[in-house]
Amino acid sequence: MGNKRASDGNSDQRKKKFKVASGFLDPGTSGIYATCTRRKERQATQELGLLFEEKLQEIYGDKLKELENADNSAEVVEEPKVSEELSIEEQIQQELSEIKTASNPISKEQKKKELLHFVELNCECVVFCKTRKPIIPEEFVKKIMDELIDPQNKMKRTRYVQKLTPITNSCNASMEQILKLAQEVLAPHFHSASCEIEGYKFAVEVTRRNFNTIPKMDIINNLVSVVCENGKYKHKVDLKNYNKLILVECFKNNVGISVVNGEYNKSYKRYNVQQIFEAKLKLNDAGKTPVEKKALI
């Protein structure tokens, strides 16, 4: 009595296992990674799809109209051939083509939707939304976060989405390609003339998923070299009180880079939607009187 049943050696099988992701991202892809509750990837994609489509119109509405007007002015109307010059078979083919075009008026809508396209990564707890111009991922995500951190905004739009991470651009997982991408993405943030006199405090954060191609510290050291350019710019590494943070997202054979400002870790809670609203709830509770708190119990 009281003896515990001997282990059958299958304890490891009872542990939670994460599947290896089967999706992939092409080099040159820009977009937004989002982490979410496990096994709720589909629901998180639906939530983000609705939120992103709404914010797309709010943030880039004027630019979308300009693109639409440019498309309309660039359309060339082809004069139909005179029926007398066509054979019976050619007339039939023309009529079928006209019917197909008339019954499929979705070209403009498709163009809008293509600005935001969710890529199937088949990676647990992670979804990815591919973006195209005029969307700038860092700008797009930051404006969404500006609205979320607003104390007057009490509405939580998502249930399963946790953290958003913008990616300016991406490349294949080779150090040569990463250095080329770093020059492109980091130069506007770190290589202005004023940075030769007074630099920024910065840090590099690398996240790896299904990725073991390049050691983490090799990526960090090489990006630091790109930022400072052998002392030409007066930037300094500061892991706590940085002015700018370089985000590096490694997924399988794809490496994406973006830059966020120093408030990312403080006011913006690392772009974590859940933590932003948890902080709001604490502030609301702190502002209530004991009588109000008791009434909620």
TrEMBL record:
Record-given protein name: Similar to Saccharomyces cerevisiae YGL232W TAN1 Putative tRNA acetyltransferase
CDD domains assigned to the protein according to its UniProt record, in alphabetical order: THUMP_THUMPD1_like (cd11717)
SUPFAM superfamilies in the record: THUMP domain-like
Lineage: Eukaryota, Fungi, Dikarya, Ascomycota, Saccharomycotina
Species, as recorded: Maudiozyma barnettii
GO molecular function, one term: transferase activity
Domain THUMP: residue ranges: 149-261
Residue ranges of coiled coil: none
InterPro entries to which the protein is assigned, alphabetical: THUMP_dom (IPR004114), THUMPD1-like (IPR040183)
Region (Disordered): 1-20
Comp. bias regions, Basic and acidic residues: 1-13
